[in-house]
Amino acid sequence: MPLDPTTIGLAVAAVVLAAVLLLLVRKRKGADPATRFQRASRAFLSHFLIPDGEGGEIHIEYAMLCPRGIVIVDVKDVAGNVFGSDTMQEWAVITGRKRFTFSNPQPGLYDRAAAVKRMVPDVPVIGYLAFTETADFSKGSPTHVVSLDELVTELEDEHEQKNAAPDAYWPSWEQLRNAAVDTQVAGLVDT
């Protein structure tokens, strides 16, 4: 029994829609910062606490062991024109007619990098504020502010060229990882 053109058209549309959805899911999964950072580093930790060196704890969003040392990254997902500088206490995001402000994220990044550096003084520690591609710094980027895509590409290229972070960094990475585990366990026991 032959199929009518409407049935064939609906079947083709369903196949195309399924293929597009599959591609979008794969692309979105690949766009996840954690997945991308894992591929670009020798070792990776995300969303963990470590001692801040002053009797408290500090949250680290992402840490990677890379050829350049231990890289700390705070990812900021904002859409629009971002206006901020090293000296401004508040940064602004403007999208069309909407405007909102947020505290300058640099001091927090510096605190996180300093906490890691106190723990592993023999390894370079570099911190970045990585903004997604929906953010536009039309007046220029402040210190340590980078595009997430550009940072990942740079780290991937470094990782491929040098193959891995130097073995000399590994004991310090283990120390950082163990501190993160100890802090998490202590938090569970205290509650």
Written overview of the protein:
The protein has a 5-stranded mixed beta sheet, sandwiched between helices. A 4-stranded mixed beta sheet has the order 6-5-4-8, with no helix packed on it. Strand 5 (90-95) and strand 6 form a beta hairpin. Helix 2 runs parallel beside helix 4. It has 5 helices and 9 strands. The chain is of the alpha/beta class and 191 residues long. It folds into 2 domains: 1-31; 32-190, no CATH class. The model has no long low-confidence stretch (mean pLDDT 87). It starts with a helix and ends with a helix. Helix content is 44%, strand content 29%. It has helices spanning 5-31, 33-39, 106-119, 148-162, 170-190, and strands spanning 43-51, 57-66, 69-76, 80-83, 90-95, 98-103, 125-131, 135-136, 145-147.
Helices and strands, with pairings:
Elements: H1 5-31, H2 33-39, E1 43-51, E2 57-66, E3 69-76, E4 80-83, E5 90-95, E6 98-103, H3 106-119, E7 125-131, E8 135-136, E9 145-147, H4 148-162, H5 170-190
Parallel strand pairs: 3-7, 4-8, 7-9
Antiparallel strand pairs: 1-2, 2-3, 4-5, 5-6
Largest sheet: 5 strands, mixed
Mean pLDDT: 87
Low-confidence stretches: none
Helical content class: 40-55%
Instruction: Tell me how many strands there are.
Output: 9
SS strand fraction: 25-35%
**SS class:** alpha/beta
- Number of self-contained structural domains: 2
Sequence of secondary-structure elements: HHEEEEEEHEEEHH
How are the strands ordered across the major sheet? 1-2-3-7-9
So what's the overall shape?
extended
Task: Spell out the key features of this protein.
191 residues; 29% strand; alpha/beta
